[in-house]
Predict the structure.
Amino acid sequence: MIPGVDIDLIGTAVASVLTFFVFSYLLGDLPGLGPLFKFFYRLAMHILVGAGAAYALIVAWWSVLYPRVFLRLFESRLTDNMVGTVIAVSGAVLGVLLLFKGIRSLAWMGNLSTAYLIGVGVGVAAGGAVIGTLHAQSQATATFSSARSPLDLAVLFIVGTLGTLTVFISFTFTATGRKGLAGIWARIVQGLSVLGRFFLYVALGAAFAGVYVAGLSVLVGRLQAVLPLILSALSRLLAMGQ
Amino acid sequence: MPEATAETLEWLKGVEPPASGETAAPFVEELPPALGEMPAWLKEIEPTQAAAGPVVAAPAEAPPPPAPSAPAESAIAAAPIEGGLVAAQLPSWLEALKPKVLEPAAPKEEEPVELEGILEGVRGALPAAEVAWQSLGAGISMRPQITPDELSRAGALQELLARGAATPVRREGESRAQKLWGGTQRLFVFLVIAVAAILPLFPGASLGLVGAPQLSGAGGRMYENVDGIKPGAPVLVAFDYDATQAPEMDALARAVMRHLLARKARVSVVSLYPAGPAAAQVVINGLVSGTAPITLTNLGYMPGQSTAIPYILGTVPFSQVIELAAAPDTVRWWAEQLPRSEPPLLWAGVSAQAEPMSQPYLTSGQVGGMIVGVPDAIAYELKLGLFKPGVAPLDSIAIANAALIVLIVLGGVIQLIVGGAPTPENERRRK
C-alpha cells in the first residue's frame, strides 16, 4: 500500500479506461478515426488475455502446486506420513509427464497422465450424468403430475411431446415431388418439420433472450461503475474552468 | 561317359553307352501299345481313328503367332489337316472365351479437374460423384437447387464463422457508401442502446418505470432457506464465475452473502474457475469492511471441474451448498454430484443466461430454490432490508429492452417497405 495513493481509485480509473477501449470496437467503422478505435480495442483484448494468462499461472502455483504438492510433500516428510508422500509424488510425476505432451517425440510419456485424467473424468461425469440427470429427470417427469391441474398437464404434455417429436422430424430429410402415398407422407413430414422448426426458433429465441439480458446486465453494471467516475471528473474540470 | 571297368557292376553293363560312332536314336514315344496287351476296358475307349499315326513330339520350329485380325482368325479355325491333326470344333462357351480384337475406344468426355485441396490438378479423381447425383427414383433430381438467396445466407454464415474477434470482414462488392451506411446503422443502434441504458443511471434521474421487484416462488424459497440457517451452520458457497460476468453475478453474490453473514453462518468459499476466488474476494471485501467479525474462509480454486466436486464434498464441512453460477454447466455439475435429500442440499443464484438450462434441476427438486439475475438480486436485498439498493439498473434494463424492441420492429417495417439497404445481396434479391 503506497501512502497517499488510493489504489481503489486507480483501479476504477484503469477499469473505466479499459471499458471504453472495449466499447471503441463499435466506433471502428468510423472513417478517419476508425483504425485508432480498433487499436484501442485490440489493446484492451491483449491486456485481458495477457493478464488472464498471468493470473492463471499465479493461481496454478499458489492454489494448486504449492499447497497440494510441495507443502504436502514437505509436511508428509516431516510427519513420516508415507501415504501423503506417495500421493504428492504421484501427482507431481503425473503432472511432469503431462508436460512431455508438448514434445512430439516424447509425447507418449504423457499418455499415462492423459489416461488417468480421462478415466477419472469420464467415471465421475458418467456416473453423475446417469444418476444426477438421467435418472433424476426421468423420475421428475414421472412424478410431474402430482402438483398440477389436469389442464396444465394436458397442455404441457401435448406441447412438450409435440415439440420434441417435431423438432426431431425437422432434422429429417425427405424427397419431395413424389406421387401417391409416398407423396402424401412426404407432405406430412414436411408439415411437421415446419412445426418443429417453429419450436426450434422459440427455444433459440428464449436462449438468445437470456444471453441478451445477461449481456445488458453486465453493460449496465459497467456503466454504473464508470458513470460516477466520469461525472466526478467532469465536475472537477468544470470547477477548474471556473 | 567313362568307360566301363572291371569294377562295373553286372546290372550296369546293360546300360552302358553304345560304342563310339553310334548315335542315339531319337526318343519316340511308343504309342499306341499292342492291342493284345491292353485291358478290356481300355480297348472300348480306343480311338477309332486308326489312320492317326503315332503322336510326334512338338517340332522344334514353333508356328508363327496368329495375326490379330479377323481373316487370320478364320484361317486358323479352318486350318487344313496337317501332320495328321484335325481342327477341332470348339464349343460355343469356349468360342466366347477366344481373345477378341479390341476396337479403338470412343473418345471419352473430358473428366473434371480438381481445383482445390490435396487432389488439386488431378483429373477424374472422383468418377462416382456424377453418378451419385443421379436419383434412384423416377424423375426426381437429388441435385440441390441453390438459389442466390441461399448462397447469400451461406456466405453470411461463413463470414460469421470465419470472423475473428478483432478482424471485421467486409463483404465483397460493397462500395464505400454502402460500408459507411452499414457502419452508421451499427453506430445508431449502439447510441440508442447506450442512451437508453445510461439515462436512468444519472443521479437524480429516477424514472420509476419499474416498481420494487418481488421474489418469485423459487426466489422466495431460497430466501426462506437462508433465513432458516442456524448460527454456526457450515455453508459452502461456490463462486463459479469470473470477472467477465461479475457486474451481473456480484449483485446476486452480495445479496446472498450479506444474508449468510447476518445469519452468522460458517461460510466456506470455493470456485471451480481459476478466476473465481478473486471475484469472491471482491465481494467479501465489500461486505466485511466495518462489520462484526465473521467466520468465512476463501478456500480458493479447486481444479478438476466436475471431478473436483466429490473432493470438495469430502473435505469441506457443509450443511448446504449455494451455487452462484454464470453458466448452466456448473449448476449441472453440482446437481449431479450432490446426493438428493429433503430438504435439498443445493440452492442457486444464476445469471439470466444460465436460467433456461438450470430450470429442469429446479423443477426436479434437485435445486431447492433459485434467484435469477439483477431483478431477483434487488428483490432479495429489498426483502432482506439490510441494504437498500436502487432500482435504477432495472429501469436501465427495461428502457434498453424497450429501445431494442422498437429498433427491431422499426427495422422490420423499413425492410418490408423499402426492401433493405442497397447492398449487393439486396440488389440480387430485387432482380
